[in-house]
Design a protein that fits this description.
By secondary structure, this protein is an alpha+beta fold. It folds into 3 domains: 309 residues, FAD/NAD(P)-binding domain (3-Layer(bba) Sandwich); 165 residues, Alpha-Beta Complex (Flavocytochrome C3, Chain A, domain 1), CATH 3.90.700.10; 128 residues, Methane Monooxygenase Hydroxylase, Chain G, domain 1 (Up-down Bundle). The chain is 38% helix and 14% strand. The strands form 5 sheets. A 5-stranded parallel beta sheet has the order 5-2-1-9-17, sandwiched between helices. A hairpin with a 2-residue loop joins strand 6 and strand 7. The longest helix is centred in the middle third of the chain and has 27 residues. The mean pLDDT is 96. It is found in: Cell membrane.
């Protein structure tokens, strides 16, 4: 159990991080160019870490599988980034952000990590403003804020519906400056395929040049994994199709514990599935729930008529609409946390009130008509129009919506062909974010010395459910303000080590293993494509390890995934060759990892005999259909140790969660 020392500093929670920094070892500026650091992944976490470490003087080698760091999936984040600056004067504070995050995570996150996240959040905004990130501003020129789910204040900073893109461009500009100085060596179109451990420490990686197919060795004094989450284990998710778990899973198989894999976030505001040939799902920003109201018809015959195309949504009068989130959760309404909103949508659709004309009838409405009228009247008064017509109110209200969310509305109309200013958006929950990930201590170091994990790839901050707009916060907090301190504490012992050679036996063995797998995939005379197996896995995961889980379904999933795994290794067919760009070969490596991880996710979900956040067990729910936690037996982090190819043999290690600053109680948003 000593491997699971979380290293949370002693003392009052408000002083932990400051005192910890004050007593860390340092690497002096004149010694930093003697240290090499590998950063795998160049989204917000990896990009900010690479830029900051290089600016401090370290030699950084940054790897991304895209053709540019600008294409990292962080670019897809829409709604905003949280920070406790209290610009609105509505009661926000560092403690309030800390409390909301722990409560939103259903009391399954570490107090120390979450408080640090809240504590540094304000610095993130200052950093990004300095980089030129064009955050939205109010009429007086001050930075504006939105509300997001699970909170009762406005703390979310945003750049229209493009916040992730703008933040990533800020990090990329900082990276580009260091690339120009030679402090970052950028490896685009490279994928990490194994971790190299020398004398018990992470000392490098084996990477494949995705353009030439060359297998390369890269060494460093420390390795940072910032490769994002594993939502694509479900095949259909809001993640970019290339997003994968391979880097995190490779270090798991080398000794890094994998924590809370069953904690998966289902986002309630996605465009519904429209067909079996679909490759990914599209997210509509949670920020839309500030202005939109979610509903289904009150009368089941109206729902049937809508599905059959005989009735239009806008024809249903307000008294015949069931604004079910406002009905069930009056204190938070449409801004309940994502897990709560998702389950509520599923309940209405399962009861027959879904409005989408697909096989499952999965879909609810997100309607802006109320906000259009409200803002239209306000705008009319501001313009001294004292008796506005309905058309004037509508036009002014739509103009306000367009200014606030315009690009999101354009995106929705291009995808669906429907005008959301007139016809309510159709939405339904879909896999979005993963709260589980590689186990790390307070210093963001895994159970492998010298291997650090940041951003969505680690498990540390969100518990069983992430509050909206906190992913960008965690990624940038880790990269800009946490890792540069904690990794220095580790690297201080390496200033006289010298360059790590790549011609040792450990590199030989790792490269040989990668090459053998490449050869296997290209020479296996199978009959099915990689996507065939990925879709089979996704179907099992969504139906049995998705929004609602049962012991019977989870046991079936474990067995069925094993059968798919076995069939994959016998019958997968990978076309093309190893010496050129080969997307099918890339996918084969990733799906092989997804098949193993998917089985562990089901095992973890079966082991956790409670419901909390994104992990919902129907056999552990209240009569009202709410999550029922078991704090007596399950108030711990599940950390799994790899034992070999039989995933069922993984060993569970428990990190007890201790709450000294927050009262643990049943979550309520009513």
């Amino acid at each position: 159990m000593s491997k699971l020392d979380s290293k949370i500093p002693a003392g009052p929670i408000a002083d932990k991080w400051t005192n910890h920094k004050n007593h860390m070892n340092l690497v002096s500026p004149n010694n930093r160019d003697k240290i090499d650091i590998i950063v795998v992944g160049t989204g917000l976490a990896g990009g900010s870490a690479a830029a900051t470490l290089a600016e401090q003087g370290y030699n950084v080698k940054a790897f991304c599988y895209q053709d540019s760091p600008r294409r990292a999936h962080s670019i897809a984040a829409q709604g905003g980034i949280n920070a406790a600056k209290n610009y609105q004067g509505d009661g926000d504070s560092t403690y309030r952000l800390f409390y909301d995050t722990v409560k939103g995570g259903d009391y399954r996150s570490r107090e120390g990590n979450v408080y640090r996240l809240a504590e540094v959040s304000g610095s993130i905004i200052d950093q990004c403003v300095s980089q030129g990130v064009p955050f939205g501003r109010d009429y007086g020129g001050q930075l504006d804020n939105r509300s997001f789910g699970g909170v009762q204040v406005k703390r979310t900073f945003y750049a229209k519906g493009q916040t992730g893109q703008q933040l990533l461009l800020g990090a990329y500009s900082a990276m580009s400056r260091q690339i120009g100085k030679g402090r970052i060596k950028m490896y685009n179109r490279h994928e990490m395929l194994d971790l190299v451990i020398v004398d018990g420490k992470a000392r490098g990686i084996i990477a494949r040049n995705l353009v030439t197919g060359e297998i390369e060795r890269h060494s460093a004094h420390a390795v940072v994994i910032a490769s994002g989450g594993y939502g694509n284990v479900y095949f259909l998710s809001t993640n970019a199709m290339g997003s994968n778990v391979s880097a995190a899973w490779k270090i798991h198989k080398k000794g890094a514990y994998f924590a809370n894999p069953c904690y998966v976030q289902i986002h309630p505001t996605c465009i519904p599935v429209h067909g079996t040939a679909q490759s990914k799902l599209t997210l509509m920003s949670e920020s839309l729930r500030n202005s939109g109201r979610i509903w289904v018809p009150k009368n089941i015959e109206d729902a049937v008529a809508i599905r059959e195309g005989k009735l239009k949504a806008e024809s249903i009068t307000p008294e015949n609409r069931d604004y079910y989130l406002e009905r069930r959760y009056p204190a938070f309404g449409n801004l309940v946390p994502r897990d709560v909103a998702s389950r509520a949508a599923k309940e209405r659709c399962d009861a027959g009130y879904g409005i989408e004309n697909n096989d499952t009838q999965e879909g609810v409405f997100l309607d802006f008509s109320t906000e259009i009228i409200k803002k239209g009247k306000e705008a009319a008064l501001e313009q001294n129009i004292h008796n506005p017509t309905e058309q004037q109110i509508s036009d002014l209200g739509k103009a306000w919506i367009e200014e606030k969310y315009g690009n999101l509305f354009v995106m929705y109309e291009k995808i669906t062909g429907e005008n959301p200013y007139v016809t309510p958006m159709k939405i339904y929950p879909a896999v979005h974010y993963t709260m589980g990930g590689v186990w790390v201590d307070y210093n963001l170091q895994s159970t492998i010395p010298g291997c650090f994990v940041i951003g969505e790839a680690n498990f540390s901050d969100h518990g069983a459910n992430r509050l909206g707009a906190s992913a960008l916060m965690q990624g940038l907090a880790d990269g800009y303000f946490v890792l540069p301190y904690t990794i220095a504490d580790y690297l201080a012992a390496d200033i006289t080590t010298g360059a790590i050679p790549t011609n040792g036996a450990d590199f030989d063995v790792a490269e040989k293993g990668v090459q053998e797998k490449v050869d296997f995939f290209l020479n296996n005379n199978g009959t099915h494509s990689v996507d065939h197996f990925h879709k089979l896995l996704g179907h099992i995961m969504w139906n049995k390890v998705g929004m609602g889980r049962t012991p019977e379904g989870l046991r079936e999933a474990i067995q069925e995934i094993e059968e798919v795994r076995n069939d994959f290794w016998k019958n997968v067919k990978v076309i093309g060759d190893a010496n050129s760009l080969n997307p099918e070969l890339e996918k084969a490596f990733r799906v092989a990892d997804f098949l193993e991880l998917g089985q562990l996710m089901a095992i973890d979900a079966l082991n956790r005999e409670e419901s909390c956040g994104g992990h919902f067990r129907w056999d552990h729910s209240t009569p009202e259909g709410e999550a029922k936690r078991d704090d007596e037996h399950y108030k711990f982090v599940s950390s799994w140790e790899y034992q070999g190819p039989d995933i069922k043999q993984e060993v569970l290690h428990k990190e007890d969660l201790i709450y000294e600053n927050i009262e643990v109680k049943t979550r309520s948003y009513k």
